[in-house]
Amino acid sequence: xxxxxxxxxxxxxxxxxxxxxxxxxxxxxxxxxxxxxxxxxxxxxxxxxxxxxxxxxxxxxxxxxxxxxxxxxxxxxxxxxxxxxxxxxxxxxxxxxxxxxxxxxxxxxxxxxxxxxxxxxxxxxxxxxxxxxxxxxxxxxxxxxxxxxxxxxxxxxxxxxxxxxxxxxxxxxxxxxxxxxxxxxxxxxxxxxxxxxxxxxxxxxxxxxxxxxxxxxxxxxxxxxxxxxxxxxxxxxxxxxxxxxxxxxxxxxxxxxxxxxxxxxxxxxxxxxxxxxxxxxxxxxxxxxxxxxx
Length: 294
Description:
Number of helices: 7
Strand order of the largest sheet: 1-4-3-2
Radius of gyration: 40 Å
Order of helices and strands: HHEHEEHHEHH
Number of strands: 4
């Protein structure tokens, strides 16, 4: 096995190990960036829903409150307004979703599914938990779930006017939704949660392509480095050693007209060349002395 082959095998082995380590670290970084990007998008959607809720509560409800005695207008309900606005947005972005899920909603359409119930129960079981972030696997890929709880506090006492008992609720609301849902709420209860689902597919694909680009760039840099090192190895190490080897072979064959090796520089190869020349001269002197004695 030649010196060049040994050098290349060692260099390629070291590169493959480094490439594997770099790939793992790069994927961790890019996937974490993808998750952070998805969480930012979920926060934006959550913020939009919260803004619509606030606008409905402060601006819309006072304007149409007098009409509630005639017929119940869901437009006055912050949850209905927020979900209606964001459902319209969802038509252009079908993979994104916003829902205000509840365990006992007034509107049956807001009833929590099994996995949404698990999120709400997590808030119920931990009073200090104010945000939930998780990744959910679905047939269409992974989704990042971001949720915040609806806890009934003292500032939410107005909600109990409609949701404590059917008798206390506006008759028009009971006529529209019936007396069987959305009642029995109490202060301190976690009645539901704002839940945003954001697909991770696009961000993960982008992260994967970034990883491939990074790995391809590393491979290209390595190939260029490998070529340059092989050229340097050939001209500064292999070729001089081969020249010295050829001269040594001629000397060992008994040739008397073998020239000295042209020494240039002060590196190890030059030192080897000087040592060869010294040996060559010593050998020639010894031969001359032997010939003179005979």
